[in-house]
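Justification of resources, computational component.

The compute hours requested in this renewal are based largely on the per-chain cost of generating structure records like the one below. Each record pairs the submitted sequence with a full structure-token output. That output is archived, and it is also reused by downstream analysis tasks.
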Amino acid sequence: MPFVELETSLPAGRLPPGLAQELCAAAADILGKPAERVNVTVRSGLPMVVAGSAEPCAQLLVSSIGVVGSAEQNQRHSARFFDVLTAQLGLGPERIVIRFYPLEPWQIGKNRTVMTFL
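The structure output for this chain reads:
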């Protein structure tokens, strides 16, 4: 069950329509998970600084069970997420940062229990 959170200083009006759905489909493909399990949040218009600059920027947080736990996995994921984000947001790769967080099944609650028991 991947969680994808995009935070950006870009105002909502500069984001392409359907961005959350596009990120959902992209994350499902990149991480090899069904889209029905992907959760996406998009936060725009945030005061942000990346690399010491307040120029338009974004950061993506990707957390999931089993698919973001190694440097090799995340290197592949990173390249593909950067392709999506630069195309969708119109930002250069130097203005985007991605953070990967591996999760354990007991860290995700769903249907009144945790994923360990589902």
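The radius of gyration is 15 Å. The mean pLDDT is 97.
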